[in-house]
Design goal:
Number of strands: 2
Number of helices: 10
Largest sheet: 2 strands, antiparallel
Helix content: over 70%
Order of helices and strands: HHHHHHHHHHEE
Strand content: under 5%
Length: 426
């Protein structure tokens, strides 16, 4: 093969062995920059893998501790509801334990009162509904025997026998599902009791938590710990308020439709719809299905179809308009993020995950925005009045006080200052 001389390039009058390439001639900097880019990509990939591994480990640990974390989370949500009346009583001189016990007992009495109002109505009409259900089955049988199905009585009997045989063949599986469901109900009741007990301690000793946590973090971190704790608590409180508003709208419109159509058990179905709204998507769907079923049994197919249309319309209003807009504005989250949070939570942890998906996403967003503002030097720990929290107190306990932001976090190092009057030691 002849040696290439490189002559004969574009604009070269001499005859050469080949034509010049269209690519530019490489420079020495190209190799250096390629190695630098490769090094940067490798470091970023390693960091990404480490972060992914850390998230997997954290998720595994949280999954193992879920039986403990769930009552704590539910207790915090209960505490957001019970804290305002408890704070009112404490400001009027009530002891913390007595105020917390009274508010918790009133909360339980309210739940018990709702059950006491609903139970007699259900007991009074369940017999009539059962008779109407049997009559409805007979009507369905007669309807199937007529055109266009023309199913005779013998064929219906065969279908019933097949259904019975199928149930008997899967009796063990059904028993297993029933045992699993009973176990889930038992665990749910245990978690509920633990959550209520923890809620009592949260509203009784809650004001001591932030000073204790800030004291463990240190003087420089104390303002950030206090400010971020306040923001996360406000986010949880906002979630409960907004879910209650969504549930009220659902219960009002569905209950109004049931009342106009003269469907029985209006109040129980409205209450069920209200509490079902605290479990996004699934809770309201189940409540709507009960309403349609009762309308079908009591009023017939036409009224049941109308009730189904009302439930579907209200659910569309809630899922696509009301809930994303209200939660998006309150949490400063885009509607798509709200929907994705509900979807991700339900896929990861079922109904509880769907219930906790939005507040968890909101807490993540609050924490991210706070850290971002700290990095940008915006001082999110400074309140609107120009003060920030600082740790004070002595060996008897730590308290949080407010100090002008100009003093800086170092002002919190005055740890030997006497606590203000009436402050609860940690």
């Amino acid at each position: 093969m002849p040696e290439l001389t490189g002559e004969g390039g574009q604009g070269d009058p001499r005859t050469g062995d080949h034509r010049a390439t269209v690519a530019p001639t490489p420079t020495w900097q190209r190799g250096e920059r390629a190695r630098e880019a490769t090094r940067t990509l490798a470091i970023a990939s390693a960091q990404l893998l480490l972060i992914a591994a850390a998230l997997v480990v954290v998720g595994w640990v949280l999954g193992r501790l879920w039986v403990i974390l769930l009552p704590i989370i539910l207790g915090l949500l209960f505490a957001t509801v019970l804290w305002p009346p408890t704070r009112f009583l404490r400001r009027h001189g009530w002891p913390p334990a007595l105020a917390a016990a009274l508010v918790l007992l009133l909360f339980l009495a309210l739940i018990g009162g709702i059950i006491a109002v609903i139970a007699p109505q259900v007991a009074a009409q369940v017999t009539d509904l059962a008779d109407q259900f049997a009559s409805g089955l007979q009507q369905v049988q007669q309807w199937l025997q007529g055109p266009p199905f023309n199913v005779d009585e013998e064929q219906l009997g065969q279908y019933v026998d097949q259904a019975i045989d199928s149930v008997q063949a899967n009796a063990s599986n059904i028993a297993g599902y029933a045992a699993t469901g009973a176990s889930a109900v038992g665990n749910g009741l245990i978690n509920l009791v633990l959550a209520l007990v923890l809620a009592f301690f949260f509203i009784k000793d809650g004001p001591r938590w932030v000073p204790w946590l800030a004291a463990q973090a240190g003087p420089k971190a104390a303002p950030h710990v206090a400010a971020l704790s306040q923001k996360t608590w406000s986010t949880l409180s906002e979630f409960i308020k907004q879910q209650a508003l969504v549930g009220f709208v659902d219960a009002f419109f569905i209950g109004l439709g049931l009342w106009i159509l003269d469907v029985p058990l209006v109040i129980p179905l409205a209450v069920l719809t209200f509490f079902g709204a605290f479990i996004p998507i699934i809770g309201a769907f189940v409540a709507g299905a009960f309403a349609v079923l009762i309308a079908l049994v009591d009023e017939g197919f036409t009224v049941a179809l109308i009730v189904f249309g009302i439930v579907l319309l209200v659910q569309q209003l809630e899922g696509n308009v009301l809930q994303p807009i209200i939660q998006g504005r309150g949490f400063n989250l885009h509607a798509a993020v709200v929907i994705l949070a509900v979807t991700a939570g339900s896929s990861l942890a079922g109904i509880i995950g769907a219930f906790l998906g939005v507040p968890v996403a909101a807490l993540i967003a609050v924490t991210y925005r706070y850290v971002r503002d700290v990095f940008d030097g915006r001082h999110p720990e400074v309140a609107g009045d120009g003060t920030h929290a600082r740790v004070a107190g002595g060996d008897d306990g730590a308290v949080l006080t407010r100090a002008p932001a100009a003093e800086g976090p170092a002002a919190g190092e005055a740890g030997n200052a006497a606590p203000p009057a009436g402050a609860a030691p940690c």
